[in-house]
Amino acid sequence: MHDNVLITLAAYFASLSLFAIGGANAAIPDMQRIAVDVMHWMTAKQFADSFAIAQISPGPNVIIVALIGYHVAGFAGAGVAAVAMCGPTCVLAFVVSRVWDRFKRARWRVALQNGLVPLSLGLIAASAFVIARITDHNVAAALVTVVTAVVAYTTRLNPLWLFAAGGVIGFAGLV
Amino acid sequence: MSDSIVPASGPEAEQAGFVRPGLGELFVAFVKVALSSFGGALPWARRMIVDQKGWMTSQEFNEAFALAQFLPGPNVVNFSVVFGARFGGAAGAATAFLGLMLPPLVIVVVLAMLYARYGDLAALSRTLAGVTCAAVGLLIAVIAKMAMPLFTKRWDWAPIVAIIAFVGVALLRWPLPYVFLGLAPVSVALAWYRG
Q1: Which residues of A44-55 are buried (b: 16+ CB within 10 A; e: fewer)?
Q2: What is the mean pLDDT for each group of 10 consecutive residues in chain B (195 residues)?
Q3: What residues of chain A lie within 8 A of the CB of B137, using their CB?
Q4: Based on CB atoms within 10 Å of each CB, which residue in A36, A101, B29, B171 is the most buried?
Q5: How far is A90 from chain B (nearest CA, A)?
Q6: Nearest-CA distance from B158 to chain A in Å?
């Protein structure tokens, strides 16, 4: 049973890995779909909490996969999820970096990149929507989101301050 | 492989001050990048690699980062592989990747253990809800910055692709691989023919 769960985690994140155009944040909706709706590994609130914990932890946000993995199958789950999510893209990055100089100015390369930007944008916007739907269910919560967005857009304030402010407002019971 | 500083080969070797990191240095550098990066590791990676260590010029950094962005997956993870491979082949790529991922993995597992134990506490749950609201706000700021150049130019295919991807994934809950395989070829073809 335990082995099966690890295999499921590995297969899922490895298959998701190469479609995460624009980074981990582009894959959040699919992770939520699988972890919450399809596999019932966690509740929507636990998923949103995992997203928040991954954001306030140092390092790449992709680390959320280790939180999901740990929730499902402990230490082994965390390791398997992280390796599966990063393995395929790392191998691809290694291979492409060897031949990059040959085609970095090729027209098809430019078209590929320009074509993927709007896709990535749509996916990241979907992430914000999916998480907001779980967490922004009153006016105060929506206000925290909107004010954070404006501050983050217009200033270069360290995001940790914004997380701290959100945390304090949450602790006070306002969201 | 030793950790000694060996002068870089190639054109940058002629400029005094450019050095080639050993594996140990590479590992430590990416541990530092990992531990100091909140909400995007790019500025930290640049500061470390260009300003402090002088391992790359600003332009080399930009080119390596452009490659990392071009690839699927987290940019900074791709960058660690691209950077590590450049200075130490497969061993360098693995070293930089492990430096970037191991410390966050340990930290996040500790947090996951704490969450498994205390996640039901109302105060913690409320606090995380507040953090989540802020994190969504940060995401919206990122989206706005990405959308600006696409949506302010003449209304063309790019915003339509973004909207279809959003509707498919967020509202219709289609699996990401289907959305990607359906939209990416169309979008890339449009980018090729319409610029």
Answers
A1: bbbbbbbbbbbb
A2: 42 52 93 83 84 90 88 92 93 96 96 94 95 95 89 81 96 95 95 85
A3: 144-152, 162, 166
A4: B29
A5: 6
A6: 6
- Does residue B90 sit at the A interface (CB-CB below 8 Å)? yes
Tokens 């915003």 correspond to what residue?
B159
Plot region of A23 (φ>0 → left; ψ -120 to 50 → alpha; else → beta): left
How many Å apart are CA A50 and CA A42, to the nearest integer? 10
Cα–Cα dist B136/B10, whole Å: 45
Q: What is the DSSP string of A53-108?
A: HHHHSSS-GGGHHHHHHHHHHHHHHHHHHHHHHHHHHHHHHHHHHHHHHHHTT-HH
* Window B:41-80, CB contacts with A under 8 Å: 41, 63, 66-78
Q: B1 CB near a chain A CB, below 8 Å? A: no
pLDDT by residue (tens digit) across A19-53? 999 889 999 999 999 999 999 999 999 999 999 99
The contacts of residue B163 (CB under 8 Å, 6+ apart) are: A122
Out of A27, A110, A173, name the one closest to residue B176 (CB): A27
B146 and A18 in contact by Cβ < 8 A? no
Cβ pair A153:B116 closer than 8 A: no
Whether B180 and chain A come into contact, CB under 8 Å, resolves to: yes
Domain positions in chain A are 2-104
| Closest to A76 measured CA to CA, from B30, B73, B112 | B112
Q: How far apart are CA A114 and CA B158, in angstroms?
A: 9
Task: Kindly report the backbone phi and psi dihedral angles of residue B177, in degrees, each rounded to the nearest multiple of 5, phi listed first.
Answer: -60, -40
